[in-house]
Amino acid sequence: MKTTDSVIAIFITWGLASSAIALPAKVLQPGSVKSPLIALDPGHSGHDIKSVDRATGLIDHDYPNHPEMEECFRIAKAVQAKLAQKGYRVVCTKEAVADSVSLHQRAKLAQEAQAALGISIHDDHSKKFSTFAQVYAQNVGLWRGRTVEKPKAVFSDGPIAARSRIWAQIFAAERTRAEGHKVEVTSISFNGRHGIEPGNIPQVALYAGSGAHPVPWIYNEVGGIGLGPEEEAKYVQGLVNSIEKCVPILTK
What we know:
The chain has 5 helices and 13 strands. The chain has helices at residues 68-86, 103-112, 158-179, 203-208, 229-246, and strands spanning 8-13, 18-23, 37-42, 49-52, 59-62, 89-92, 117-121, 124-128, 133-137, 143-146, 151-154, 184-185, 217-225. Helix 1 (68-86) crosses helix 5 (229-246) and helix 3 (158-179) crosses helix 5. The longest helix has 22 residues, at 158-179. The chain starts with 7 loop residues before the first strand and ends in a 6-residue tail after the last helix.
């Protein structure tokens, strides 16, 4: 295959499906050749926090959600430990489960660290682990705030969106294998949620993909009903396998 400076054709095989995607070469470059830095973002804050993001005017709201926040923090720390053993550098957006960190602060932390990839880790206790598992990618045109016709903020970084979309498919495939149920790359709606800006992209992913140091972001969900130690271990392994496929540690 011939590769130019501007375009590289990559072929990704996910067991049952194979596809070819042409992208700018810079889309595929990892954050670090020998030791990529990964940002892990376990969901929710210890206290209800609300502010207004100056750049976008978006209400930046986060809140406690038990037992999700304890589960996701535990999962994030397990992922962090496995990645560190493999030679990755890892930054976590919370140092303790009860930390209160705004969505903008989470994204800023990943950007300042120049993370090669950021991943949010969530679970939903209205859904069963065996039947609910989703991945959300960044994409040009996704929005938050007011209405779809006149949003406060729109995602606009094409190269970051391209990378996020490809990596989201890898996350779905690797998590499907590890978790033993179907994981889908799909859309999400925040419309009608009390105290939360309407739209169709997680705010942390919106913030992370803008500015001088945009970070590709993958947002993960799984069902919380029936999420015990065995299921947590599967979620952890699926995330680790996904990260290794998306941002491999290169030895040359």
